[in-house]
Amino acid sequence: MNHSIIELFGKTITVTLMQPTDFNEINQWCIDEGWNIGIHDSEIYYKIDPIHHYIAKTNESIASLSLIKHSPAFFTLGPFIVHKSCRRQGVGEALWNVGMTQIIKEYPDAHIALYAVSEQVERYKKADFIPVLSIQRWYIDSSQLISPSMSDQCTSISNKLIPSICQYYQNHYVTNRELLLKELILKPKTNGFVFMDDKVIKGFGFIRPCVSGFRIGALIADTPEIAQTLIAELLILAQSAPVFIDVPGSNLHGIHCMNAFHAVRAPQEDTIMMIKGTGYSSYLKQWKQHYGLFSLEIG
């Protein structure tokens, strides 16, 4: 796609592909909206897929929509936002139609996943997205925790470990995430631990800086005890800053794990995972050992 032209209420709107420099402005809109985005997340999304981020402009940028390709069969909806001055004018709907039409044209059988706040669920249902999974937002006050001694089964994640972690990750996710992992460990103040038992990976987790505090995720573990060990090690790196984590409702041990750290629920920030496309039940089974999503843009 080179560009599309939309005529809307006497305005000519041009939709083009976003360039890396466009993300600075869009990220600031997200921050102004109160979204606690990862400091380096947009750089990672662009690395994963540089050709499905759309921006609408008149004389200036007015809206953006990111659709991130993880494989020909699976996309996620990244930041979708309209500038405050242009809302309720049909701009978002017009941009949505351009982006979704392009994806469906290129990949007619692809599944698309998104994470919607409760008030937007009905809107996405009209676009044939189906609610499939609740996501709970939790906050942990890392300043109140006593630092544990380092577990001898936890090892800092290095580039050398990425292929093994990627293989473990792929057992719990719908696509290969090697590029995500490689990009993640390059980012400042981003750290991860892997839990190993007799040289076999049993879990891993990352912590990275956000606009406010830190996010833990992705976090996957074979047992709740392993998840708690990883969280305890990751919290040391938060240096007393607030930490948040998004826990899939399909993980029956998630609440117990959060309670172990006196985490506080933020139900007003909960989301619903929704999927467009059929035959996704096997994908949902992979979430049962997820204790923290990477983000609400790419799961």
Mean pLDDT reading: 91
Strand content: 25-35%
What oligomerization state is this entry in? single chain
| Rg of Cα set | 19 Å
Label the CATH architecture of the largest domain: 3-Layer(aba) Sandwich
Low-pLDDT residue intervals, each spanning 5 or more residues = none
> What structural class is derived from the secondary structure elements?
alpha+beta
In DSSP terms (H or I, runs of 4 or more residues), the helix count works out at 9
> Helical amount among residues, as a percent range?
25-40%
Description of the molecule:
- With 299 residues, the protein is of the alpha+beta class.
- Helix content is 27%, strand content 34%.
- The chain has a 15-stranded mixed β-sheet that branches.
- Helix 2 (41-48) runs antiparallel to helix 6.
- The longest helix is centred in the N-terminal third of the chain and has 16 residues, at 91-106.
- This is GNAT family acetyltransferase.
- It holds the Pfam family Acetyltransf_10.
Describe the secondary structure blueprint for this structure:
Blueprint: E1 3-8, E2 11-17, H1 22-32, H2 41-48, E3 53-57, E4 61-71, E5 74-82, H3 91-106, E6 111-116, H4 121-125, E7 129-141, E8 154-156, H5 162-170, H6 178-184, E9 191-197, E10 200-209, E11 214-221, H7 224-236, E12 242-248, H8 254-259, E13 264-265, E14 271-276, H9 281-285, E15 290-292
Helix pairs in contact: 2-6
Features:
single chain, 299 residues, alpha+beta, Aminopeptidase, 2 domains, 9 helices, 15 strands, globular
Task: Describe the structure concisely for a colleague.
InterPro entries: Acyl/Acetyltrans_Enzymes (IPR052729), Acyl_CoA_acyltransferase (IPR016181), GNAT_dom (IPR000182), YitH/HolE_GNAT (IPR041496). This protein is α+β, with helices and mostly antiparallel strands and 299 residues long. The protein contains 9 helices and 15 strands.
